[in-house]
Amino acid sequence: MAEDQKTLREQSCAKLHEVETPKKWLKKKHEQNAEFIWKGKQDQKNSSCSSDVDDKSNVWITQNRSTGSVGDADYISWLSEHPSALSCFKEIMNAARGKSIVVFLDYDGTLSPIVSDPDRAFMSNPMRSAVQEVSRHFPTAIISGRSRSKVYEFVKLKEVLYAGSHGMDIMAPPQQANSSYAVKYQTRTIDENDQEFVTFQPAQEFLPEIEKMLKKLEKKTCQIEGVVIEDNRFCISVHYRHVKEQDYEILEKQVEKVLKEYPKFHMTRGKKVLEIRPSIKWNKGHALEYLMETLGFTSRSPKEKDDVVPLYIGDDKTDEDAFKVLKSRGAGFPIIVTSKPRETAASYSLRDPTEVLSFLIRMSRWKSAHYY
Ligand SMILES: O=P(O)(O)OC[C@H]1O[C@H](O[C@H]2O[C@H](CO)[C@@H](O)[C@H](O)[C@H]2O)[C@H](O)[C@@H](O)[C@@H]1O
């Protein structure tokens, strides 16, 4: 394949294979004012870190026009630092071969696209099947900012473990986690199918205050058109996607006023959402570690650590805590879902939930091809 016909994805792994740098490449493309259409299977002769995707869902069209380019220079340059997990699929899986892969997934923006109504962030059937298939091959958990029951309502898969409220509400198998912190907040429960589970809820004591705060927030913001307040059980989301821009500041002031009355809570920001949660030392990263432990993947030695490969896919700021945990473990694959350059601790990237779907499908296929 001629150099100038290479796909952006191949270019994203340029660093790994010391081919042309994305910036130089982009410049060349600008000069040619070319239009590239990348579809599925491509010639992989020149790069082992390239995509051999063969499902139709993975169609990426990049227009490189001088006006309004989809794959802009910043993004392409960013891709060289955070290559596409699809392009680098073989490398990722080769590194994981013979090891135990554990899959962690965020929900909104990862398994379902970001939509304007939080109650309608449904998961597509192909995505559900892909997650189900992945969970048949690898232990799989979904860690979301939503309440655990809400995520389950969307996903509806019994095979998967769920952590809601940014990891502050986990339902896991009955193996005991060893740390005293974990034991303190664990409760054994039996689900509707008579299966035993352990719920871990480190923010239990905050529930009465959260209830009061919800009411107060509703009262204080009901005058602002477009505000949606979502009860995520151990945390609260104040959505402003439908609020007029001139009202953003007023809304934030109201939220801050309420927060002042509740000093044990703090606010973080997500995608057009203000998230309020108890100020405890527990986040999605801790949830990942807790789940690894309860799943029996606690590393007692460096060798054991090397034998487990956690993979985390997420799109939001709160997922960064999990990426950092993987980074500090020095093992595993943190993958960010974004189509824009972002400051992140993730090593790899996927553009959107469609690419997440392709990645998950390929994981299952890879496992079937290599282990059966
Ligand atoms: O950890 P996550 O599963 O990614 O949850 C984070 C927040 O996601 C949801 O809000 C976001 O998605 C909505 C639906 O697409 C969108 O309307 C909203 O603007 C986004 O911020 C969820 O509603 C929040 O409660 C979660 O905290």
Give the helix/strand layout:
Blueprint: H1 8-12, H2 14-17, H3 22-32, E1 35-39, E2 59-63, H4 73-81, H5 89-96, E3 100-105, H6 125-137, E4 140-143, H7 148-155, E5 161-164, E6 169-172, H8 180-184, E7 186-190, E8 196-200, H9 207-221, E9 228-231, E10 236-239, H10 248-261, E11 265-270, E12 273-278, H11 284-294, H12 302-306, E13 308-314, H13 320-329, E14 333-337, E15 348-350, H14 353-371
Helix pairs in contact: 6-14, 9-10, 11-13
The chain binds the ligand O=P(O)(O)OC[C@H]1O[C@H](O[C@H]2O[C@H](CO)[C@@H](O)[C@H](O)[C@H]2O)[C@H](O)[C@@H](O)[C@@H]1O.
Pathway: Glycan biosynthesis; trehalose biosynthesis
Catalytic activity: alpha,alpha-trehalose 6-phosphate + H2O = alpha,alpha-trehalose + phosphate
Function: Removes the phosphate from trehalose 6-phosphate to produce free trehalose. Trehalose accumulation in plant may improve abiotic stress tolerance.
Average pLDDT works out at 82
Q: Please give the oligomerization state of what you see.
A: single chain
Order of helices and strands: HHHEEHHEHEHEEHEEHEEHEEHHEHEEH
User: How much helix, percentage-wise, in residues?
Assistant: 25-40%
Q: In this structure, how is the largest beta sheet organized?
A: 9 strands, mixed
Q: CA-to-CA gap between the ends?
A: 34 Å
Tally of DSSP helical segments: 14
Structural class: alpha/beta
Low-confidence stretches: 1-48, 51-68
Number of strands: 15
Sheet with most strands: strand arrangement: 7-8-6-5-4-3-13-14-15
Give the names of the bound compounds: the ligand O=P(O)(O)OC[C@H]1O[C@H](O[C@H]2O[C@H](CO)[C@@H](O)[C@H](O)[C@H]2O)[C@H](O)[C@@H](O)[C@@H]1O
